């Protein structure tokens, strides 16, 4: 039986697509108090962030179904959770949740890639007409479906530290899970791109025992954060790097997180025979790699694509943050929270790329 809260005022920021002048069209829309079915959770969004993929949608680089509510990185507070005894959730719990809702029984879910479920539903990427319509995080509330993994946020982690756990961090936890633990200091990784994925990657590989964690970019401002996350900044445009550079054919793992296929040739040259190349960032059709079968074969190269993650990676992501929040300045990566009502200001700030994430607080005044 559906359960409805007595008086919850819900407002969502609805995306209507791109206008003729290449600007995105948004309106704030009130929603009826959503009833929740067995297994569903009504969350109040405490904090949400503007992920790179949301920015791509708003600038027309990527198309999403609309009208819809964008946004998938968030921390929320449980208002109603029925039929989720296994999660022992209570009203008031702070949680994050998997960006994908999956059936948990199809062949892909059983194969360990629930993010590719045949019946996949993704938050922030779904039409308003699907379910309650409260399907994205740029809203005061969201309704989580039955197959969504939910992870509680430990009390000593701030919302601003955990807000990107359910996209950027969990994705990198998935990427790093495909390389082996190593004796302290014995291995080298090159991470291509010093955005949020790259910085999380530095910290994750350092914890995994990699002695040399290079992080490349062509923008010195972005590279400034790298050493704070235990990476070695390497400007591949100028060649600037505070330590000696890795030689060709010497790097154990290369991870692409910058979204630009032009870096691939460089990565292939660096990779040692038998090394692993992990591709994470190039989620666009314009991503021809420009390498040959011969290069892959002669290097005995392992190439792995990583898209999103499964629930265990989200659990590990939150545990990683809890373990390392004293060590890394996670809160320095995000802006001051901006009210959802001021979304235009937030989107403009996000476009400047001054912060790794601009964050919005949908319930700032309630
Ligand atoms: Zn499935
Ligand atoms: Zn994202």
Strand content: 15-25%
Distance linking N and C termini: 29 Å
Q: Into how many domains do the coordinates divide?
A: 2
Overall pLDDT: 93
Q: Identify the bound ligands.
A: zinc ion
- The helix/strand order is EEEHEEEEHEEEHHEHEHEEHEHEHEHE
Structure class: alpha/beta
Instruction: Give me the Rg, rounded.
Output: 21 Å
- Helical amount among residues, as a percent range? 10-25%
For the secondary structure, the number of strands is 18
CATH superfamily of the largest domain: Medium-chain alcohol dehydrogenases, catalytic domain
Main features:
alpha/beta; 2 domains; 25% strand; 366 residues; binds zinc ion; seven-stranded mixed sheet; 18 strands; six-stranded parallel sheet; 22% helix; single chain; Quinone Oxidoreductase, Chain A, domain 1; Rossmann fold; 10 helices
């Amino acid at each position: 039986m559906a359960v409805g809260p007595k008086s919850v005022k819900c407002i969502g920021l609805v995306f209507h697509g791109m206008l003729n002048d290449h600007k995105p069209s948004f309106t704030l829309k009130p929603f009826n108090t959503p009833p929740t079915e067995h297994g569903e959770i009504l969350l109040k969004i405490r904090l949400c962030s503007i992920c790179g993929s949301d920015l791509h949608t708003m600038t027309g680089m990527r198309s999403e179904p609309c009208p819809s509510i964008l946004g998938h990185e968030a921390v929320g507070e449980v208002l109603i959770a029925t039929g989720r005894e296994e999660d022992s959730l209570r009203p008031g719990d702070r949680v994050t949740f998997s960006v994908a809702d999956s059936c948990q029984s199809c062949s892909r879910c059983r194969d360990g890639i629930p993010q590719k479920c045949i019946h996949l539903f993704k938050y922030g990427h779904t039409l308003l007409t699907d379910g309650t319509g409260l399907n994205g995080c740029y809203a005061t509330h969201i309704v989580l479906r039955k197959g969504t993994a939910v992870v509680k946020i430990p009390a000593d982690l701030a919302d601003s530290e955990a807000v990107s756990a359910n996209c950027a961090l969990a994705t990198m936890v998935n990427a790093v899970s495909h390389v082996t633990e190593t004796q302290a200091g014995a291995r080298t990784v090159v991470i291509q791109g010093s955005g949020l994925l790259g910085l999380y990657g530095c910290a994750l590989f350092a914890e995994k025992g990699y002695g040399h964690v290079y992080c490349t970019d062509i923008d010195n401002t972005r590279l400034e954060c790298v050493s704070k996350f235990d990476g070695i900044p390497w400007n591949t445009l100028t060649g600037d790097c505070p330590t000696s550079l890795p030689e060709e054919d010497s790097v154990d793992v290369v991870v692409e997180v910058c979204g630009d296929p032009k870096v691939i040739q460089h990565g292939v040259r660096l990779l040692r025979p038998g090394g692993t190349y992990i591709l994470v960032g190039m989620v666009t059709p314009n991503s021809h790699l420009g390498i040959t079968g011969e290069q892959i074969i002669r290097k005995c190269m392992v190439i792995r694509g990583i898209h999103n993650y499964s629930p265990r990676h989200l659990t590990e992501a939150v545990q990683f943050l809890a373990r390392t929040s004293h060590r890394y300045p996670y809160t320095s990566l995000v802006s001051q929270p901006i009210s959802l009502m001021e979304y235009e200001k937030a989107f403009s700030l996000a476009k400047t790329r001054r912060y790794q994430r601009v964050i919005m607080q949908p319930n700032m005044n309630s």
